[in-house]
Design goal:
Elements lengths: L5 E10 L8 E15 L4 E6 L10 H12 L7 E7 L9 H16 L5 H13 L5 H6 L2 E5 L4 E4 L6 E6 L6 H6 L7 H20 L5 H4 L6 H4 L6 H10 L4 E4 L6 E5 L4 H12 L4 E5 L6 E4 L1
Parallel strand pairs: 3-4
Antiparallel strand pairs: 1-2, 1-11, 2-4, 2-5, 5-6, 7-9, 7-10, 8-9
Helix pairs in contact: 1-2, 1-3, 2-3, 9-10
Amino acid sequence: MITDVFEVLVPATLANLGSGFDALGVAVDIYLEVRAQPAECDRFVYTGEGQVPPTADNLVHQGYRAAWAELGQAAPPVALWANNPIPLARGMGSSSAALVAGAAIADRMSGGKLGQDGVFAVTARIEGHPDNVAPAIYGGFVAALADPPIAIPLPVPEVRFVLAIPAYEVPTPLARAALPRHYSLQDAVFNLARSALWPAALASGRLEVLREAAKDRLHQPYRAHLMPGLEAALEAAYTAGALAAFVGGAGPTVAAVVRPGMEGAVRQALAGYAGQDGRTLILGPGAGYTWKEI
């Protein structure tokens, strides 16, 4: 078992990409950092966005224990120090990053017995939907299933992401509760066709198609009441030159995909949605989790 002190960096992610509900996602280059060291008892120290209690029932430890359980072993005690710049409950995959960090740490300590694909299988099962954990593991754009666990990285063109992040939270359970139990065949086909455009557009370089690819009838319209000004924000992003605009995960973050050089105009267009107490960020595509030696 590896006993050195080490640190894992796990990216924030944007799930769904509009039409690819629970199936498509992308990593962006802002990273949760978790330092780990074997210890006599579990410890957790947290700094960064929001408030997380310093107890061993946090999501990083949950991912860590789940990975050891997958290996059929009891989880050895570990001390964790987390520094998290990813906003909590804003649709940027903060919980998935924490789970992936924990599972990756367990894999590292076990000598790599799970591997990347094993880390994905464990964390996708915990999350129940893979569109955040897959890009956190593999980086860039990813298409993924949880059952069976399949994740396929997609081409990453030269694009940037402009994020408008309101000050309020939209907890995932609340966003899930807003969805209908049944959909029309017309709406299902609408989304299937557009989600298929994402990999085709990324592979072919026809990025102008992403505006159509991001259209959605399965989740964003039903969650719009939780995010005041959403429809106007999406339209403003397109007017300012965005290639695609969509809600990140369960929201309330609105993400715009832009060509380099268009970041400023789109950021200005989305500033009103972020609000006086919110913020905007300009980020690039993110890498999958990586290791930083101490």
